[in-house]
Write a structure and sequence with these properties.
about 90 residues, mainly beta, five-stranded mixed sheet, two-stranded antiparallel ribbon
Length: about 90
Amino acid sequence: MFSQVSAKNMITPNGDGNNDVWQIDNITQIDNYEVIVFNKAGQVVFKTTDYSNPWDGTRQGNPLPQGVYYYNLVLEHKGVKEKKSGFVTLLR
């Protein structure tokens, strides 16, 4: 099940309808999960346990600068836990 969860590596929130929010495929198929996005300084810019409102490149409603952000996905399914991490590039 964990292998089916995959995060896109780019977000372009420019209102054109393509990649305006960060897509994580199959995340809602997992029993419990936490999504954490942080900047190069290690500051958390987005955190949720309900990805029905995906990350849109903002922090508290304010647009973040373009650049590379890092993420951790903490996944738990049927009592088994796994952590995935990687990066996502924000382009404006």
